[in-house]
């Protein structure tokens, strides 16, 4: 297995790759404008996954660094999937020192329940207490 390097250095992020993946290949952010991706990166704790200096994965966490975090935009490019990189990326996120002892760590996924379950993520214990405003096609308008 090639040596995967994971970093929180925002200067190293390939924003063009992140935008292209999210806007064209993700199932959750089709059509997202680059300016929105840039603002999300600026206001999140970001994790880039790199092989030989080339970015192959990404994840970001929106958090107050004290009580709450939300994991979003997790991906590994298609040609590098099946090599354990998504597991290593999630492990790096969960091991980050600023994300310890949070009361709630949330995410939304349509197809990676098994991946996240191995790290203790479960359906909400009290779903009746959760509410949301959800606009799935906001970038199409």
From TrEMBL:
Residues in N-acetyltransferase domain copies: 4-141
Keywords annotated in UniProt: Transferase
CDD domains: NAT_SF
InterPro entries attached to this UniProt entry: Acetyltransferase_Butenolide, Acyl_CoA_acyltransferase, GNAT_dom
PROSITE patterns reported for this sequence: GNAT
Record-linked Pfam families: Acetyltransf_7
GO-annotated molecular function: acyltransferase activity, transferring groups other than amino-acyl groups
Domain of life per record: Bacteria
Descriptive protein name: N-acetyltransferase
Organism: Duganella callida
């Amino acid at each position: 297995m090639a040596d995967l390097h994971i970093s929180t250095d925002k200067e190293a992020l390939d924003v063009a790759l992140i935008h292209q993946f999210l806007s064209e290949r993700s199932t959750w952010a089709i059509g997202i404008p680059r300016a929105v991706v840039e603002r999300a990166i600026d206001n999140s704790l970001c994790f880039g996954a790199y092989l030989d200096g080339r970015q192959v994965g990404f994840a970001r966490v929106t958090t107050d660094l004290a009580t709450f975090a939300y994991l979003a935009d997790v991906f590994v490019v298609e040609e590098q999937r099946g090599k354990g990189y998504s597991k290593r990326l999630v492990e790096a996120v969960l091991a980050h020192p600023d994300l310890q002892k949070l009361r709630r760590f949330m995410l939304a996924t349509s197809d990676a329940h098994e991946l996240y379950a191995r790290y203790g993520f479960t359906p909400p214990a009290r779903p009746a207490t959760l509410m949301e405003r959800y606009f799935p096609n906001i970038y199409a308008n």
